[in-house]
Each structure stands twice: as structure tokens, then as C-alpha cells.
User: What shape does this take?
Amino acid sequence: MPDTAEMTRETTITPAEMEARIVRYGDLQPCKTAFIDAHTPGSNQKENFTIIGGGVSESADQHVHITIPHGFNIGAAGQPPRVRNSLHDHHTAEVFFVLSGKWRFFWGRWGDAGEVTLEQGDIFNIPTGIFRGFENIGTDYGMIMAILGGDDAGGGVMWAPQVIEDAADHGLVLGNNGKLYDTKKGQSLPDGVGPMPVMTDEELAKRPEPTTGDVLPNHVARYWDMVALSDRKPLKVIGETGLLKDRPGFEVDFITRRSASEDKHSHDRPSVLMPVRGHWRVDWEGGSATLAPGDTMSVPENVAHSAVPSMTGEAALYHIVGTDDPAGRTWTGA
Assistant: This one.
């Protein structure tokens, strides 16, 4: 576990109180109308989950599991094979790791500037300033987990112009208030609300189009490389001194069986534990809980805790804690 922001003052919490801060994979509540492409063929079967924080959903139907501010948001996307998330951008950082399945991420104005394929445990720190999308190219339903910078996740999503145009052809209009209106249900823009403006050609021309070779070295980390690098101590994956050097408003550590410790530590802000493989036992003063892949646990500030694998076999876990850094960097060619 990272040793940043350790505190001498510690807080106790009951098992029931901690369980309320655990979102189990089987309890995740999806939204199928979260974004403007919810009716667009090829994207209309995707599911969006907001686990911690409100995320960037454009739908009033979106369920938020944990509303406590963390300095970042945790979400997820679940998609059947060959279903894609349309090209978009955020004002803040967006980091994905693959929980299950095989995924193709692509980016650029038309989605053809570059691409990378990720599998279970791989992580992608996508810089702001470029349109990005993703598609499940596996044979089964797949899930990717997301970390978004900031408590308000940057205030929404910026869509490539063709996404907005295609959505209108299928009945969905995005207002300049960030809310969706479904003309198939008889909805229309309220008085005083106009359609979300599309980016101008001049604005689009300023956006960089980094190639696959530009992006991969500093923004993608492979699961098995991280396993090798974390055989003695937790690996700082994203952070000022991380494998993927960045200061997006949070740090991400990768912990395996060999680097896990029963020594307890705490932070002066909430932290999050997200297993990607194996079962993990989290102990704290007052109780313990077991986490499985797909579970998300929010540990309160100043609660001393530890996490170790609870069963034999392969085990890996991501640990996220907020920082006071700005929420994300714009693509600069690095």
C-alpha cells in the first residue's frame, strides 16, 4: 500500500458501517440510457455504472452507489461483444483497467489515429484533449473499471460531432445543460435550453492526433509487467514517480500476493481497493471483509487497514487514493 498521507490519529468503524462502503459486483446497478449514443446501433447495448461519485452520466436514471466525495470518481462500463462506446473526451483524467474481456481502445477525430488492445488487468491512462472510444472485441460480456479525476468529473462529456449527429437521427438530443432528451418519448428541449453545440472545424483542427506509437509507452501498462515489477513491494502505477508518470488528481498502486503486507496503514482522505484477480481480506480495527474481483471498497480517512490475499492462487489489486494535484493532463506528445 502507498505510504502517502499517513496519520497518527486513527478512526474505528464497525463491520456494518464498512459494508455500506463496499459495492459488490453482483449488486451493481446499470444504466442503459446514460449517454447520447444509447439508441445508436452498435452502442445501444452498453451499460454504465457509477460506483463512487456521480460520474459523467447524462441520464437522470443513473444510480450512484456511493456519493461520498473522494477527489475522484469510480465507474465501470459493461458491454456485450462488438458493442462500442462512442468517441468522446473529458476535461479531467480518465483511467481504465480491464476487469474482464478483451477490449480495443481507439482515439482521434474519427477514431483512426491509433488503437491498443487490452486484456484482464491491463491499465490505460488516457490523456485529456483527444477523443477516445472503446469496444468489447471478446466473445463474452466484458467489464472495464474507470477512474475519473475530480469530484465532479470535469462537468460532463465532450462528444465528437458525428456522435451528436448520429444520436439525433435515433431520437436522442443533448441539451446545453448536459441532460438528454428522448424525442421517441415525446421529450423536447425545455424553454431556455438549446442543443449542445458541436465543436467547430477550427476547434477540431487544434486537437492532436497521436499515433499508437506515441501513446503506448507512457500511457499503457500491461498486467504481467506490473506483476513482475510488484514482486517485492507495491508498484506505483500512476503518480509523479509512477510507472506511468502523471499527476491526475489521484495515485494508483498495484499490489500482488508477494507485495501485500499485513501491516496496517491509513490516509487523511478516503482510499479505494479494487481487486482484479483473487480474493482479498481487508482488516481494520473493528472488523474484516473479503473482496472479490469486481468489488469496490471505500476505506474512510484515518482508518488503519491492510489487505492480503485470502485464498491460494493468483491475486492482484488496484489501490487508489486522491491527491491535491490538478485532475489530468492534456496530451502534449509525452
Q: What stands out?
A: The CA atoms of residues 94 and 126 lie 6 Å apart. Residues 2-8 have pLDDT under 50 and may be disordered. The chain has five helices and 25 strands.
